[in-house]
Amino acid sequence: MDKEKNRGFFRFALVLIIILLFVITFSFIMIGKIQVPLPIVKQSPFFSHFITGQDVYGHVFIEILPQCTFDLGNGWTLFSLCADPDNKTVDGVASNTSYRYVMRWNTTRMEWDIYSPRSADKPFENFTTNESYFILLYSPYDLSVYGPANPDMNITMVQGWDAPSWPYLFSTNVTKYFDDTKHRYMMKWDNPIQEFIIYSPRAADKPFEKIFKAEGQMIYAYNNHTLIYNKTDLQDP
Prior knowledge:
Blueprint: H1 2-31, E1 48-50, E2 59-61, E3 69-72, E4 75-79, H2 90-94, E5 99-106, E6 111-115, E7 133-137, E8 141-144, E9 153-157, E10 160-162, E11 172-173, E12 183-190, E13 195-199, E14 210-211, E15 218-221, E16 225-229, H3 231-234
Antiparallel strand pairs: 1-2, 3-8, 4-7, 5-6, 5-7, 9-16, 10-15, 11-14, 12-13, 12-15
């Protein structure tokens, strides 16, 4: 009986020794003279892990992007905030971009107010989620806006041109909110050619029929009214 116990003990000890030798051998391989440069996945100030070891080096950065992430092209881009950030200052939202100017439509004067970070006198300081804005970039950038999704909205429109936002994460057909009894034209900005394209309900050939996440827009209104966004009604079935 004792002999059987001893044999069992020796077998168990032998298995442990084999496992230990395997771990030691693998460890020497990993920290030996083999260099393993680790690639940078994506630089992020939010999540980072630094991996070190003898002749083993590199950085791994992991970033979880919000749903409200969209491209700002080179040159002018007309955009909306598709999320509601806590910090709505121009620098708070656009600080990581190489922006030169931001423009906001002034419905009183029917012209663009120009924000320059180099100017001491700035006509506005904050973004809002119910307006579209122009931004001029020196180089393209993927802008991420951290915050909750925007709710249903009522946007005040005045007679003439307005720049209401499209503040949602989904796309829709513009006819779901463009009312031809109240609206005459709608314009979106074409980034590649850097000019407006114009939608008219009376035109047989329409340059677009949908609006997409974070896009900006301008609408010509016949009179003062309220543009109503009901998310349930706006989303495609």
